[in-house]
Amino acid sequence: MQQFTQNICNFAVMRRKAIQIVSIIFMITLMLLWSKTGYAGSQPHTFSVWKTFDSEKLLNTSRHYANTPSMSDSALLCASMLTERYSKQLSEDEKKIIVRGYTVKAYVYLFRYYDLSRAYESLLRASAICQEIHYELSTLYMDYGHLFSSIGEQGGGNDALRKALYYIKKAFHTALAEKNYNTLNTAFGNAITIAWELNQPHSLDKEWNIFRKLKNNDKPEYTKFNLLYYEAYQQIQKGNLTAAIALFDKQSKMMPDDDSHVRYTAVGLFNMARIQQQMKEYDAALINLHKAEALATRYGMKDVSIQIYYEIWQVMRLMGDGQAAEKYHSKYLSAKEEMLNYQQVAGLKELSFMDNLRKQNDRIAEERTEKMTIQIAASILLLIVVLVSGFAIILARKNRQLSDSNEALYNKVQEMISTVDEMPVEDKNIKYKDSRLNEAEKTAIYMKACEVMDNSNEILEMDFSIRRLAELAGTNYRNMSQVINEKAHCNFNSFLNKYRIRQACKMMNDAQKYGNYTIEGYSTSVGFKSRNTFVTSFKRITGLTPSEYLRINRSKNSDRKQ
């Protein structure tokens, strides 16, 4: 099975490369043909004006547009025009401006298009220039912090959050040296949020002692907001939840109702609701979550909306309102899917921007080469036809082979669903040298563990742990860990994943009830925090991706109906 899976991967890689090559050739051809239509000669007035700006003015223009949500396209274009000016020969001051241009691009990608990969690419380019000129910039560290924080929120876990906290602390201390109090305020507020998520109450002691003594009035409302935030955080650590709610309430009421402050208001409401949920004051929590939801919708804060939908889903579930919980679960999944679409749009938009930018720099007498260009285009089109035809024949043959093999794997999975022990594991067992359990005791614990895994819906909760399994099976953590390793020949995570994947397969088989679920929907429904982790585990255990499994399932259901 491993060899077959590898063959699938190899073919998939070959197919992707072939498609990429054909796409590149096709795009080149289109560019050549467009150049003959006069499209390249259309020069928007705005582009021409921006081109005349010096680097400092172009940077300020991009910053202005970046702070206006409806002008994100213009912000990205201005920043791209600026970063395109980089060369080794530039002065150090010019290179510093270009570094700031890259941070503007990163900001737009992070907070307007939610495109983490392009944001990361911009930050890496900025970092390379900083290393070249031995330059530190607080906003660059801050953007790295935002990036890893977003990764952590989307399933990256505590490792990503710890990286985020590291960079945000660097941003704090660098901003202090720069006397950049705006970034310093932002850094401290974000650090509190992440420290809360990581349950590290003393990790900000050093920064707090600095922050509370600062005397600056650049942004007094932000400073007051963060002072209240940290005080509330301390009250939470002491268990004084009512006092924390009162402080969060002050936060939510202190900010002006405008674009630059609304995110802070939403944070106050959101944090207040989280504590109320913890106190089981579900009605009060819902009121504040709906207020935050209205703000996020009004100001187009899609990243905030995702978090709010998730929390409302959890509160509704705890209240026993299954219908309302399912509604917000669907809104949560739809919002995540929409963010993926935003990423695609961001990519297309930048291609358009850069195309326009290059057209500004490419005004030559094309008439002299028109005949040659048309001949080249015709040759390329002929080559495309030949390549596509040949590849289509190869692909059809390979698809038939894959279809037969995948169906065999699918049938094997159906046999395995009834008996989890037959499903492959992801790692080998670890022998315990010191054990007080005899074989009869090990077998009894293992049988009880399997009974719990077969009959308890708790295993589908994201926070289900080996300690909880041990508790339900009437034993302790160490005994359970040993038994799973020796009897199931894997660690707890692999053991748990087998049962979760089995449940996912059962749900996928029930098209009438779960047919409208996305891959993300199946993933969260069976307890996976990350779509990627779910897909990886599913492939390891079944030999198929979830998409391949669903495709075969739908095909078989269609055949039965006929």
Task: Give an overview of the whole structure.
The chain is 77% helix and 0% strand. The two termini are 32 Å apart. The chain contains 24 helices and no strands.
In brief:
By secondary structure, this protein is mostly helical. It has 24 helices and no strands.
- The number of helical segments is 24
The mean pLDDT is: 77
Q: Which homologous superfamily in CATH is the superfamily of the domain at 418-561? A: Homeodomain-like
Multimeric state: single chain
- Major sheet size, sense and barrel closure: none
Q: Which shape, going by the Cα principal axes?
A: globular
The radius of gyration computed from the alpha-carbon positions, rounded to a whole number of angstroms, is 28 Å
List the helices and strands and how they pair.
Blueprint: H1 2-34, H2 45-51, H3 55-66, H4 72-83, H5 92-111, H6 116-133, H7 138-178, H8 181-198, H9 205-211, H10 220-238, H11 241-254, H12 262-278, H13 282-298, H14 302-319, H15 322-360, H16 370-417, H17 439-455, H18 466-473, H19 477-488, H20 492-509, H21 511-514, H22 519-525, H23 531-542, H24 546-561
Helix pairs in contact: 1-16, 3-4, 3-5, 4-5, 4-15, 5-6, 5-7, 6-7, 7-8, 8-10, 10-11, 11-12, 12-13, 12-14, 13-14, 14-15, 16-20, 17-18, 17-19, 18-19, 20-23
Features:
Arc Repressor Mutant, subunit A; mainly alpha; single chain; disordered N terminus; 562 residues
